Amino acid sequence: MQNKVTLVIMAAGMGSRFGGGIKQLAQVGPNGEIIMDYSIYDAIKAGVDKIVFIIRHDFEEQFKELIGNRISKLVETEYVYQELDMLPEGFSAEGRQKPWGTGHAILCCKGKVNEPFIIINADDFYGAQAYKMLVDFLRNKDDNLDVGMAGFILKNTLSDNGTVTRGVCTLDEKDMLRSVTETYDIIREGDGIIRSQKTGEVLSDDAVVSMNMWACTPAYIDALEVKFTEFLQNLGGDMKKEFLLPIVTEEMLGKGEATVKCFRSDDKWFGVTYAEDKQLFIDSIAKLIEEGKYPRDIA
Fold first, then answer.
1. What is the rounded CA–CA span in Å between residue 242 and residue 222?
2. Mean local confidence (pLDDT), 113-140
3. How many angstroms from the chain centroid is the CA of residue 92?
4. Strand 146-153 to strand 177-188: parallel, antiparallel, or no bridges (unpaired)?
């Protein structure tokens, strides 16, 4: 029997920006479609059966009005709430101002997501290829810590409008992940070479990078529960530190607790990192529609 596959969209970080210029709600399609509309379209087409939005209670009504109610007409939809005080017994969120990070967001899905699932950011466009590969990976996956990751080609993830941060991957000959190195201030400079302005490191155009798109089973959520308790025990009073998926996953990898298979996508990744990126995004979607890759009306 094939597994059902759920798409988990991390959107809890949107709350603090409601009423302002929220990049997740930037209208990029010809009918006012937002980035998530295209992500959900690609996921459903690839075979995803359910959408789970991770949000916060304080903007639930606005979120459902702007996004959720529309999506619920297309596919089964559920909500998970990420709140600062959702902590193991004995810990406090006193002094914490922002969500605990992407690892905590997925941990909040415990008991709600009981089937294999794909994780994405609300404000990233990944393209159809990655969804298809990750759904196929999860269809017959046992509940274990065999994790899938969409790997994108560095040159396809750059911004023309400033530097970016990327998780640069080291893979073995079977495309199993060995390590992810968070690399800052990456840009293609005037000489055409991609460099990290922070370290001066030269990076290959074809380097594989992680864009926080993962494929997991519920066992991964159980592992996050253990890791989050360890994270809190070692905070040392630093209430700004974040519990992040790439860091936690690499730790599991290093300890032999998990394996990560990289699925390389040739699609161009889009995100609205800078205000100037929005027009490029609009133009790129228009081109994809013109090429027949998306219908003009995806609703």
1. 19
2. 96
3. 27
4. unpaired
Q: What is the percentage of the chain residues whose pLDDT exceeds 70?
A: 96
| Identity of the residue numbered 6 | T
At 273, list the tokens.
């990192």
State whether residue 153 is helix, strand or coil: strand
Pull the structure tokens for residue 32: 């006012």
Q: Among 6-10, 34-38, 141-145, which range has the highest average pLDDT?
A: 6-10
Cα angle for residues 160, 163, 167 (degrees, 5° grid): 115
Query: Side-chain half-sphere of 91: how many Cα atoms within 13 Å?
Result: 19
* CA-angle at 243, arms to 239 and 249, nearest 5°: 160
d(Cα 34, Cα 25) in Å, to the nearest integer?
Answer: 6
Q: Name which of 87, 85, 80, 86 is nearest 109 in CA terms.
A: 80
The token pair at 31 is: 């009918």
Q: Which residue has the tokens 């999860």?
A: 138
* 18 CB-contact burial (10 Å; exposed 0-12 / middle 13-18 / buried 19+): middle
Within 10 angstroms of residue 120's Cβ, the number of other Cβ atoms is 27
Domains of the chain with CATH codes: 6-290 (3.90.550.10)
- Which pTM value belongs to this model? 0.93
Q: At what angle do helices 218-233 and 245-254 cross, to 10 degrees?
A: 100
The pLDDT score that the predictor gives to residue 14 is: 58
